[in-house]
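Q: C-alpha cells for this one, please.
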Amino acid sequence: MILYPAIDLKDGNAVRLLRGEMDKATVFNEDPVEQASAFVDAGCEWLHLVDLNGAFAGEPVNAAPVEEILKNCGVPAQLGGGIRDMTTIETWIDKGLARVILGTAAVENPELVHEAAAAFPGKVAVGIDARNGFVATKGWAEETNVKVTDLARSFEDAGVAAIIYTDINRDGAMQGPNIKATAQLANSVEIPVIASGGVSSISDLIALRDCGAGLNGAISGRALYDGAIDLKDALKTLKE
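A: Here is the predicted structure, written as C-alpha cells:
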C-alpha cells in the first residue's frame, strides 16, 4: 500500500483543516516546498497535494507553490482542487503533475472524467468526498444526494487510475479512518481505492491495508505534522 503524505494549500501555506472547514485551518508550514522536501527525504514515493482555495474558486489558486514542488521534489504528485476543465488538466500534466484529481467535476461533469482519462491514461483520478455516505462537492461546501458507491461504479469503464475516498467527518479529526465504509467501497469496485480522512496512527494504516483487496493507498496529513505517525517508520511498516 502506498502512503501519500498530504500537503493542503491555503493562501500559499501548508495547512490542515478540521473536517474540511476553511475557518478551522492550522498552518503547519509557510514553505510548502520545504515541507514536500522533508516528506521526500523521509522516503515517500508520492505526494498528495490539494489546492483548498482552488476547490472553492473552481480554478487553480495555489498554482505557484504546486509548480515549485513539482520542479524541486523529484517524486510523482497528485493534485486536487479547482480542476474542472480539459485546459486545466492539460496545463497541469504539461507542468509535470503525475495525476489530476477530479472531484466536483466528477459529479457535475462526468463526461470530463471520461474524456480526460482517455486522453491521459493513468493520470486521472476521481475524488469522492463524502458525509454520511453521500458525496459533497465544491470544497465539501455543498452536499448532494449522490451515494458514494453509485458514483464510483459509474466510472468503472472510464479508465481512471484511482478513486480517492475521503470521509469528511473524519478528516483532520485524528479519530481514525472509517474502515467499514472504505472497505465497502474498495470491495465494490474494480478501480483501485486510496483512503483519506482520519488516519492517526500506524495501526490505522495497517487496518486500511488489510481491509480490502481493492485498497492500494492511504493519505495522511495531520498525523504526520503532529508527529503521531513517523513517516519513515510508517513506510517501513507498510513494506513488511
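A few notes: The chain is about 35% helix and 30% strand. Residues 32-41 form the longest helix (10 residues).
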